[in-house]
Amino acid sequence: MSNSARPKFFVYAPDHTEEGTFAKRLSIRNEHLARMKTILAAGTIRVGGVLLTPESLSAPPEGQKMIGSTFICEAESLDEVKKMVEEDIYYKEGVWDKEKIVVLPMMAATPIP
């Protein structure tokens, strides 16, 4: 099955809101980004990024607050995407709120890069 024919999935991974979560996110961010680059190069993640607070839109870069992650993936199965999420350092180290993560199949109405 070619990449473009694989099922697509939407992932919403909000951060915990407890004190210290943002600092923990920043302390392990390089490891998270290095892993994401590998997954992106393999074609599994098609679009991804950090979620920001609404106030971050008018804040300078150093004042922007990261509050979660989201991405669109292509994979053979829902279980494959869930495994990818569960193997991420943000999941393992408790940055993402495991109880609030959403992974759903999706059908794109527009082209996905």
UniProtKB/TrEMBL annotation:
Transmembrane segment boundaries: none
Domain YCII-related: 18-101
Superkingdom classification of source: Eukaryota
InterPro entries from the UniProt entry: Dimeric_a/b-barrel, Sec-metab_biosynth-assoc, YCII
Name of protein: YCII-related domain-containing protein
Organism: Lentinula lateritia
Higher taxonomy: Eukaryota, Fungi, Dikarya, Basidiomycota, Agaricomycotina
